[in-house]
Amino acid sequence: MPYLRYAPEIEQPEPDEQATIDGIIEGMTTQVETVEAREHHAVRASHAKSTACAIGTLEVPDDLPAELAQGMFAKGGTFPVGVRFAQGPGETLGDRVSTHRGLSIKVFGAAGERLPGHDTPVQDFVLATGTTFPSGTAKGFLRDGTVISGSAGMPELAKSAVSSVARNLNRVLQTVGTSSAKAEFFGHPYDHPLINAYFSQTPLRWGEHVAKIGAFPASAPQDALRDWRLNPHQDEDGFRIATVAFFRAHDAVFELRAQLWANAETQPIEDASVEWPEDDSQYRTVATITLPRQDAYSDARVRYFDEELTFRPSHSLAAHRPLGSVMRARLQVYKALSDLRHRDNGVPEASPTRIEEIPA
Fold this sequence. Notes:
The chain has 360 residues and is α+β, with helices and mostly antiparallel strands.
């Protein structure tokens, strides 16, 4: 099957979409303010608790086929990257509340036309566990975000119970060969963060084409972690401790892969809750991310990543513009919530242009 081409008209915004986005911003602002009142500090509205903050390289091979050699991947080369691993909730909960996880990548030296308002030579990719975004659309995002925002004041013990029920539900579903994206979102297994694959979940422009992307673990030391499980009663920060310990002893490697858009019927642009069938197109490697041994949680590094740095879908080349209902919302939501967080904490937002600006 030939790969489909990007064109602006493949996006189909709903007439009232801006009102929906305004509602998302309002609801998530309330969530941030509720958490801030409790923690006496403003944190990210999602993926607040970092697990590791690493630097490394993203290497693009010289011989990608034409359909993959697009945008910043058009020719071979090596780019410096800053990478943040984080737990899903928009508050700093103990690790017994194990929900979806995030992997944010900031690529330095990405040259080319950029999205409006983005004036630094960087490309951000914001990924999470799970191949789909369960809310599907901006309206679903508003609906589910309202529930999550309303639960911000719940006791941590109650959130732990919800996470446990969701995790056990998915375990039962997997015994019959299926799973629930929403159950995975709220109840991720107690496995090691460096053995997970992370996905864009939503499509993005891939130069002349369209793709979803994923980062897949690709080293023997990571593979050896497949049987590792957190004891949720032993340490509230067990995921962080295990990940930082790994980085002290080993390099971490991920293959960045793209799944090109090939079937408009089975691979929708506007509904991110639909998994793109690999029968139509498979994930194919476009680059290798190497994070060498390092101190991935030094005080200076963590303060910079958690307090000053932002990762946004809008930090993008035009050739990798995020697409679809959810991402059009995120282009506005991420900026509004980042502005709120930095303003309330009295910390200027960092906009680095070189990897050397990240503390060693």
